[in-house]
Amino acid sequence: MKKFSFSLQFLLDKKEKEEDLLKRKIAELIKREEKEKRELEEMEQKMAFCQKKLQEKMCQRVKIPLVILYYSYFEKLKDQIERKREAIQGILRERKEIDKALMQVSREKKLLEKMKDKKWKEFVKLRNKLEQKLIDESAVARFYQKIKNGLFQVI
């Protein structure tokens, strides 16, 4: 009897590769998200620190150009913070799409694995049936051989 072969194995292999690729993409996005969040936190801390510094300077005599410089820096920092938040939201949207794709690929892979398992069980059942048939035929042949040789007598 020939060995077991699943006709859709190429598709199952493809789904496994897709699943691995999507998992790697998600891991990469998680790293990017963490990095962006750290950078955002640093920017927000910088903003708070500079605002505190400006308040301290306002209590003293401060030159107007310095105040203008601080406010222009605040505006630039606010823009950077906003862009960073948008980048994080973009990463989250991309991750959600990849999660959805991963769920679909995982479902398809699981279905193919169930089909393969079912085909394997059918193969084993058929193989066992054929083996039993060979054993039975061999036993019958030995029995007839013994009768032919006179070891058994048929009544």
Automatic annotation (TrEMBL):
<keyword id="KW-0145">Chemotaxis</keyword>
<dbReference type="GO" id="GO:0015031">
    <property type="term" value="P:protein transport"/>
</dbReference>
<dbReference type="GO" id="GO:0044781">
    <property type="term" value="P:bacterial-type flagellum organization"/>
</dbReference>
<keyword id="KW-0472">Membrane</keyword>
<dbReference type="GO" id="GO:0009288">
    <property type="term" value="C:bacterial-type flagellum"/>
</dbReference>
<keyword id="KW-0175">Coiled coil</keyword>
<dbReference type="GO" id="GO:0006935">
    <property type="term" value="P:chemotaxis"/>
</dbReference>
<keyword id="KW-0282">Flagellum</keyword>
<dbReference type="GO" id="GO:0005886">
    <property type="term" value="C:plasma membrane"/>
</dbReference>
<feature type="coiled-coil region">
    <location>
        <begin position="8"/>
        <end position="118"/>
    </location>
</feature>
<keyword id="KW-0653">Protein transport</keyword>
<comment type="similarity">
    <text>Belongs to the FliJ family.</text>
</comment>
<protein>
    <recommendedName>
        <fullName>Flagellar FliJ protein</fullName>
    </recommendedName>
</protein>
<keyword id="KW-1005">Bacterial flagellum biogenesis</keyword>
<dbReference type="InterPro" id="IPR012823">
    <property type="entry name" value="Flagell_FliJ"/>
</dbReference>
<keyword id="KW-1003">Cell membrane</keyword>
<keyword id="KW-1006">Bacterial flagellum protein export</keyword>
<dbReference type="Pfam" id="PF02050">
    <property type="entry name" value="FliJ"/>
</dbReference>
<keyword id="KW-0969">Cilium</keyword>
<keyword id="KW-0813">Transport</keyword>
<dbReference type="InterPro" id="IPR053716">
    <property type="entry name" value="Flag_assembly_chemotaxis_eff"/>
</dbReference>
<keyword id="KW-0966">Cell projection</keyword>
<dbReference type="GO" id="GO:0071973">
    <property type="term" value="P:bacterial-type flagellum-dependent cell motility"/>
</dbReference>
